[in-house]
Amino acid sequence: MIGYTLVGSNDRKKAGAFYDALFGEIGGKRVMEDGDRLILWSNGQGPMVGVVKPYDGNTATVGNGNMVALAVGSRANVDKIHAKAMSLGGADEGAPGLRGGNFYGGYFRDLDGNKFVAFHMGE
Asked: Among 54, 64, 78, 109, which is least packed by CB within 10 angstroms?
C-alpha cells in the first residue's frame, strides 16, 4: 500500500551522500532525482524512501512523533544499518535489540533529525 515516504532536508546534497552510503548497505540505489528538490532510493523490494526540499519553500523541520520504519530483512542488517547511520553522523535513538516478541529494531536520526527504525520481524 505504501509506495514511498519522504523526509525533509535543508541540505539535499549532504542528505544525498548520507542516504547513498546508508541505503547502499542493503542494496539501495537512487532511482529518481528531481532537480535540487527530491531524491528517491529503492532496493527493488518494496516502498521507496526519499529526501525532499519542502515544496512550500519553508525550512524543513522534524515532525514530532513521525518515524520511517525500514524493513531490512534480517537482524544482521538491522545491526549493519544502525552502525552505518552512527558512522555517518546520525544520532542514536535506541541500539539494536528486541523490543517485544520477535521485533528486532535499531533506532536513529539522520543528519536533519528525522527519526528512523531499521527492523526485522523474526529470528
From this structure: 64
Q: Provide the domain limits for residue 108.
A: 4-53+67-121
Compute the distance between CA of residue 51 and CA of residue 37 in angstroms, rounded to an integer.
8
Q: Flag whether 75 is in a domain.
A: yes
Q: Report if residue 61 sits inside a domain.
A: no
Q: What is the pLDDT of residue 73?
A: 94
Residue type, 100: G
Contact 21, 28 (CB under 8 A): no
Is residue 89 over pLDDT 80? yes
For residues 74-88, average pLDDT? 98
User: What pLDDT does 119 receive?
Assistant: 96
